[in-house]
Specification:
By secondary structure, the chain is α/β, with parallel strands linked by helices. The protein has three domains: 32 residues; 208 residues, P-loop containing nucleotide triphosphate hydrolases (Rossmann fold); 174 residues, 2-Layer Sandwich (Ribosomal Protein S5, domain 2). Helices cover 26% and strands 25% of the residues. The protein has a nine-stranded mixed beta sheet. Helix 3 links the parallel strand 7 and strand 8. Helix 9 packs parallel to helix 12. The longest helix is centred in the middle third of the chain and has 18 residues. The N and C termini lie far apart (86 Å). The relative contact order is 0.09. The site of thymidine-5'-diphosphate (TYD) has 15 residues, from helix 2 and helix 3.
């Protein structure tokens, strides 16, 4: 009798080894390797088929008629913006996010919005019972929506149900971790099962043209297969993020085969579901205390959309030998770089100080253009001088201490003017690209000029008028 072979699969990265080990060699994760039965089912390694020649496929040139991807728009503007104009038919999207962030809420709202436009939507819940989903829908005031609901986890049963009911335009699977298929022998939740189930749903989407949305959990715990393996297989990956202490939620595209990946959608979790935020800048600046030192408003860009956020810094004498550096919403190594540049080129010594940096509202910023605002907040806090409350900052700082130009300066300034700001501090090179602005512009060539500007509490350094 043939012995059932088993392999050892890392539940974090999907690497396969032939013996158990405490730490995965591929990704370095501890205690993530589980024994799984080897299978040749979907997602398993393909068996070599002997004696059968392959089918000949037609080879076509690279150029040809291209059609825009057919899309179904949800009418939820922030969601459509992130997907690049709606869900693409026949595509598979993975929506990831921490537990309780609002993934199910977002998808039930999107499903209901689609049914209002006459689309057929099936919502398969593998995590919650029908009653729980109904209770949430009732809370959201969506009980009347014609979303078809099922609580099921078997891929075979789901596919049979979908085939019997007629093809829907969208299928939501909440969540991919709960799915299991008979074609893989491993236990539900393992990498093999998740991969095989996702593969089956992807094939279903391609065959029928339905848009499939898979919900994926992101856990630190190695027990549940992370959706990382699935990320490579799907057409798009969306992340729903937010901070437990804030009601703001940000939807971000990490991967998108049919659209941009730098757009964000901003939502607010309210008592009756997720509300779209039309003016995120106003929201992120909402709770601002304008008179304290250490706060600078950064005129940022998220994709094609300008976004103003407050950067808060606190610099305090440190009793410790190695002072603390705590950063929320920004890159720690980028902060170290700014501190080093301030020290080396501007004589601003922070090596004996604890530094705390926070991006208000729970937003995460990755733009280098935030450098200038961060530096302004740090210097302001150290000097105890508050920055003008009606001023915005943007610009990248180079290691030489120069302030480098950044893209989209006009859009940033326009947003600031719209929100009632009166002045902006920006890189000198960016200033040249601006024809006219309602703001008073202060263009700075180097970081030392910013330090001097704050220290003198004025904007006389290289003050320019609004006329071009
Ligand atoms: P949920 O969509 O279940 O999160 P996920 O599917 O990502 O795990 O949302 C759960 C949280 O959202 C829960 O803590 C309660 C909160 N919530 C509201 O604040 N308002 C609402 O209208 C709803 C439906 C949920
Ligand atoms: Mg959920």
């Amino acid at each position: 009798m043939a012995r059932q072979k088993s392999t050892f699969v890392c539940q974090a990265c999907g690497a396969v080894t032939n013996r158990w080990q405490g730490r995965c060699d591929s990704c370095g994760e501890w205690n993530s390797i589980l024994e799984e039965a080897e299978s040749a089912g979907i997602g398993g390694s393909p068996k070599t088929v002997r004696g059968k020649s392959g089918r000949i496929v037609e080879l076509v040139p690279l150029s040809g008629e291209e059609k825009p991807a057919p899309r179904i728009t949800t009418g939820v503007k922030e969601l459509d913006r992130v997907t690049g104009g709606g869900f693409v038919k026949g595509s598979v999207l993975l929506l990831g996010g921490d537990p309780g962030i609002g993934k199910s809420t977002l998808l039930i709202q999107a499903s209901a919005a689609l049914t209002h436009h006459g689309h057929r939507v099936v919502y398969i819940s593998g995590e919650e019972a029908i009653d729980q989903v109904r209770m949430r829908a009732a809370r959201l005031g969506l009980s009347k929506a014609t979303v078809k609901l099922a609580a099921e986890t078997s891929v075979e049963d789901i596919l049979a149900t979908l085939a019997a009911d007629g093809p829907p335009e969208m299928v939501v699977i909440d969540s991919v971790q709960t799915l299991w298929t008979e074609s893989a022998d491993s236990a539900p939740g393992t990498v093999t099962q998740v991969r095989a189930s996702a593969q089956a749903m992807i094939r279903y989407a391609k065959q029928t043209g339905a848009a499939v949305i898979l919900v994926g959990h992101v856990t630190k715990d190695g027990q549940i297969a992370g959706p990382r393996v699935v990320e490579h297989m799907v057409d798009g990956v969306l992340h729903f993020e937010g901070d437990a202490g804030h009601q703001f939620r940000i939807l971000r595209a990490i991967k998108n085969r049919f659209g941009p990946t730098d757009e964000i959608g901003v939502f607010e979790m309210t008592g009756s579901g997720l509300a779209q935020v039309d003016n995120p800048s106003a929201m992120f600046l909402g709770e601002r205390n304008t008179s304290t030192p250490g706060a600078a408003v950064f005129a940022g860009m998220e994709g094609s959309r300008p976004l103003l956020v407050e950067i808060q810094a606190l610099v305090a004498q440190s009793p410790l030998g190695t002072p603390r550096r705590a950063v929320v919403g920004w890159d720690t190594s980028r902060l170290s770089m700014i501190l080093a540049v301030l020290d080396a080129h501007c004589g601003v010594r922070l090596s004996g100080h604890d530094v705390y940096l926070n991006v208000a509202g729970g937003l995460k910023i990755s733009e280098p253009a935030a450098d200038l605002a961060v530096a302004a907040a740090l210097v302001s806090s150290l000097a105890g001088i508050s920055l003008p409350s009606d001023s915005v900052y943007f610009g990248e700082i180079s290691l030489s201490g120069a302030i480098r130009p950044v893209a989209h300066a006009p859009a940033r300034l326009k947003e600031a003017a719209k929100l009632g700001f009166a002045s902006a501090t920006l890189p000198e090179a960016s200033r040249k690209t601006i024809k006219s602005s309602d703001l008073m512009l202060t263009s700075l060539p180097a970081l030392t000029d910013l330090v001097a500007q704050i220290a003198t509490g004025s904007e006389i350094m290289t003050k320019e008028t609004n006329e071009p």
